[in-house]
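Course assignment 3, question 2. Fill in each field.
Student: A.L.
Task: Predict the tertiary structure for the chain below.
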Amino acid sequence: MAVKYKIHKDDNVEIVAGKDKGKRGTVVRVIRKENTAKVIVSGANLVKKAIKRRSQQDAGGIAEVEAPLDISNVMLVCKKCGRPVKAGYKIDGDKKIRVCRKCGEAL
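Answer field:
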């Protein structure tokens, strides 16, 4: 059974745990697994990775890439409040929308 997560691609999030605690960025990708999920946040959790040279023109070497973070280590940032918040749901007609738990603004 697939688990629903409240964080989606292109959401603004703040990292609340780990070495990049306090940094903000947008979600580039959500990686969903059986019981867990990870997110890749732009400009956060950078790690050095060895890149192999593929052709004569292609430069190999060491590059910095964004590594996945566990979804529990990030929180949504409300556009109105500007603070990290938990997301709630509200039924608007026949649509289910995410809302800020602090101010009620749609996320």
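Instructor remarks: The radius of gyration is 17 Å. DSSP finds no helices and ten strands in the chain.
Grade: pending
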